[in-house]
TrEMBL record, chain A:
PROSITE patterns reported for this sequence: PROKAR_LIPOPROTEIN
Signal peptide per UniProt: 1-19
Matches recorded under PANTHER family: PERIPLASMIC BINDING COMPONENT OF ABC TRANSPORTER, PERIPLASMIC OLIGOPEPTIDE-BINDING PROTEIN-RELATED
Family under the similarity heading: Belongs to the bacterial solute-binding protein 5 family.
Entry annotated with the keyword Chloroplast: no
Protein name: Peptide ABC transporter substrate-binding protein
Annotated ranges, domain Solute-binding protein family: 92-479
SUPFAM superfamilies for this protein: Periplasmic binding protein-like II (SSF53850)
TrEMBL record, chain B:
UniProt membrane topology term: Multi-pass membrane protein
Family as reported in the entry's similarity comment: Belongs to the binding-protein-dependent transport system permease family.
Subcellular location: Cell membrane
Organism (species): Jeotgalibacillus terrae
Residues forming coiled coils: none
Top-level taxon: Bacteria
Name of one Pfam family that matches: BPD_transp_1
Record's protein name: Oligopeptide ABC transporter permease
Chief place where the protein resides: membrane
InterPro entries: BPD_transp_1_N, MetI-like, MetI-like_sf
Amino acid sequence: MRKFSFLLVLTLVASIFLAACYGGDNGSDDAGSDDAGSDDAGSETAGQELRVMESSAIPVMDTIMASDTVSFTTMNNVMEGLYRINADQQEVPALAEGEPEVSEDGKVYTFKIREDAVWSNGDPVTANDFVYAWQRALDPDSGSSYGPYLMEGKIAGASEVFNDGADPSTLGAKAIDEKTLEVTLVKPISYFNSLMAFPTFFPQNQAFVEEQGEDYATSADTILYNGPFVLENWDGSTDGEWVYAKNEDYWDADNVALDKITFNEVKDSQTAVNAYESGEADITTKLSSELVPQYEGDENMVSWLEPTVFWIKMNQTNEALQNENIRRALAMAIDKQSLTDNIFNNGSIPANYAVPKEFVQHPETGADFREANGDMLTYNVEEAQKFWQQGLEELGVDSLELRYLGGDSEAAKTSDEFIKDQLETNLEGLTITLESVPFSVRLERDTALDYDLQMAGWGPDYLDPISFSDLWITDGGNNNMAYSSEEYDRLLKEAETTYANDPVKRWETLQEAERVLLEEDAAIVPIYQRQSNILVNENVNDFTYHFVGPEYSFYPISMGE
Amino acid sequence: MGKYVLQRIFYMALTLFIVISLTFFLMQLIPGSPFSTAAKLSDSQLAIMNAKYGLDQPLPVQYAMYMGNVLQGDLGVSFQFSNTPVTELIAGRIGPSLSLGLQAMIFGTIFGILLGIIAALRQNTWLDYGSTFVAVLGKSIPSFVFAAMLQYIIGVQLGWLPVAFWRGFEYSILPTIALSIFPISIAARFMRTEMIDVLGSDYITLAKAKGASGYEIAFKHAMRNALIPVVTVLGPLTVSLITGSLVVERVFAIPGLGEQFVTSINVLDYSVIMGTTILFASLFIFTVFVVDILYSIIDPRIRLSGGNN
């Protein structure tokens, strides 16, 4: 029996230890854990309580440091900037009291800040809170990447402060008085107000941030909130479960219905669906491709086209790819419809364009960006073969070998195989070598121009076509394929300077630029535009998603039949 | 014994040092940038970021700096979690992995040992075949299939237990079962073979002749000796259960270390990779040491002494 008592003791010791482990996890949300396990967990949602699954824990809650969707989404719901994107994807004044005054040349914005905007410690939100946060975002010691990314070339002095160590006070953001913020831009920016809805531009309470020091934004208690909700329970970036509570001090609290939102990190799409089906959560993470067909036609599946476009970049340091006919042949030889229908089968659509569909609308008529330009470089095997032969003749060869750089996920490999097969079948004499590499490696080889063809994608950070057009200017930071067109550069420059204060002309110029890029130069091979699909319980009303930065807004949501 | 322990501690430290150094240099061979926003940053912005994190220094300098910091207990800060100290990242996630791993270990070995003993005592009966079947199943079904099946049948279809998340003991039952199927099969196989071996030995025949009951023979005389090979595999098995619960953590949405470790490798979060490797290596080295000590307690025939033997 001695051995058994040994095991018994071991079990006892271990269970005491284990109890301690759970204790640590649960200590802070004892209310939730008591009833969460019981069978009537589902009926709890009768109140204004929502349960959401997220694809990752919250990495960061310091607004200037964030660079990922889950952080941006959380900030968008527990904090607020001058503007907010509403359910119709339009920017509406939030902390700003009405529209700003804009100077004649479009370079100076004067914002009035709402009198009733307060932080969760009772302090009023002031103009200095913005100035402080923006200066902090540009301090190289902070290590912010979105700060310099979004501010350089836009806000006056940003580049000098970040790169040359200029005095932070030279930044073009000044507190005229407690409630007046004056922002000076490098050039007129027509989408500047919508940019103000981006969390990197949110205010921070200087006294609080400095008081917290290293601990700032590391847990729910070390953050100040000024949005529709507050984080009631969050133990830091490793916490897999976090809770929002309604912010009663929010200036628009009367229009916020939900009292409590519980979030859980769920990495696996099937797990999310199982938890949703068994009534343990109301909103799933994005469904992976293979799950979408199961819910085809289900009214609880919410789908929307993301403004994220995938294309094949053609590296023009390769002599063969300098040939326009070769590029055009490659661009027209892939049956994209078959790719989206048979390989993805998740509602993603073929892209015959560089600026996505259902993303931005004409400043006056409201027509989609796509309406004027329509489809370009559409699939046409015969045409493609003609260009291919012509190109080969011009090069004086009868076969070509190209390296194709793609992602290393299963989904990426499958679609890359399909594209390779399409190209090799349709273009005689072409051999494609697939190179499947992790994301970080692909980025590095992109920068080094170490590829021939590369499957890449782009999701924008602000609601303006320039977030796409900008990519292809000569030596642009993301060009990385040696594409250079005087005509394209000229059009972009015109749009940014000559027509900076003429939205319609600017719009048309950017459409013309896209036409040059695709129709004249066949510079990239557009492949598809991605669709998002998630399951939302029918009791959730007014579920709201967004296209750029933060992904969801929870303040419009209410629960009920 | 004292000399032996001292010697072992020296070798343990040496092993750890080699593991850290190798990982450090191997990791630098992986191409790519640790900044997820690299695509959006200009060259000068990237240069400033690299300088901030000391990535612009030559490799030997980075190595010396890192080793110096590790000796002072500083494992650095994470890139993906905006400067969160690595020790905090690990501390915040190790709880679920640890309790899940230990629960699976305890449940799995007790159940597996019993299964093995029963199989040995009732050799070539349906009990024996049944337990062998369970053991083979546990070894051959991949854990993600088993975990997904448990989740779907018991969680979704029958609704007996929570489908996912980590909020208390009942949430840990399904993942524990899913994770313990492997130790069950290992323990059962080892136990059965050893028991059969031991039951055929002379001293068991003697015990029988002296009139000891079957129960007494099995548990008092045979089990103790049969346990030795099982103990050998228990140590490394425990570590692999704690560190290798990635799949089960993923299926049941448990915020453990596994997922974090894999993500950190994919995004080249250097200090998190290093920190987690150090932790896993130390756990492993330490358990092997404990197992060696346990031998001498379980089996008096084994005596530990210094390197002269």
